[in-house]
Write a structure and sequence with these properties.
The structure is a single chain. The chain is mainly α. It has one domain. The chain has ten helices and four strands; from the N terminus they run ααββααβααβαααα. Strands 1-2 form a two-stranded antiparallel ribbon. A hairpin with a 5-residue loop joins strand 1 and strand 2. InterPro entries: Bact_transf (IPR003362). Pfam families: Bac_transf. This is Sugar transferase. Belongs to the bacterial sugar transferase family.
């Protein structure tokens, strides 16, 4: 209950204080390339329930791979800065406020990747709300660059990166606390400066 109250208060305050920045970012995305300001995608949430995640759109609206690798040519000018600063994640404060996500928790995955989770880790990782940040987000902040170095980025993600992220997510869930969450939020803010 304390975690949810903290999420509600912090996300509402964040949305209020960051409203001018959110509006400017949305306008920049719209002016930079055709398409909506927000990117919406189905992810898997708590207890395996699908939900729609919101981010600022950082890529041109065209078909492509599910994962972003290195300097993906679909990334827009505004998108490159929003991704580098992690400002593209700010609309997820709305997802936190509405209860689909938490500020801290395992990052939500696409359904096709969740289908590959080992049963024991799946149960643990999906027992909590997914978050905007978690230990795996900090450890794999340069995930796109790591994938760019791989001969087969999709295979590298599925066989190497995803299992490591799942282990970190499982460890987080087993030892989660409000104090630990605040530490992770502070570490995330330091990492994006």
């Amino acid at each position: 209950m304390g975690k949810r109250l903290f999420d509600i208060a912090a996300s509402a305050l964040g949305l209020l204080l960051l409203a001018p920045l959110l509006l400017l970012a949305a306008l920049w995305v719209k002016l930079d390339s055709p398409g909506p300001a927000l990117f919406r995608q189905t992810r898997v949430g708590r207890f395996g329930v699908p939900f729609t995640i919101h981010k600022f759109r950082t890529m041109r609206v065209e078909p492509g791979a599910a994962i972003t690798v290195g300097a993906d040519p679909r990334i827009t000018r505004s998108g490159a800065l929003l991704r580098a600063s992690k400002l593209d994640e700010l609309p997820q404060l709305w997802d936190v406020l509405r209860g689909a996500m938490s500020l801290v928790g395992p990052r939500p995955e696409l359904p096709r990747y969740v289908a590959m989770y080992p049963a024991d880790l799946r149960e643990i990782v999906l027992s909590v709300r997914p978050g905007i940040t978690d230990p795996a987000s900090l450890s794999f902040r340069d995930e796109s660059e790591l994938l760019a170095k791989a001969a087969d980025p999709e295979r590298e993600y599925v066989e190497v990166i995803m299992p490591m992220k799942l282990r970190l997510a499982g460890d987080y869930v087993r030892s989660a606390s409000l104090v630990g969450d605040i530490r992770l939020i502070m570490a995330t803010l330091r990492a994006i400066r």
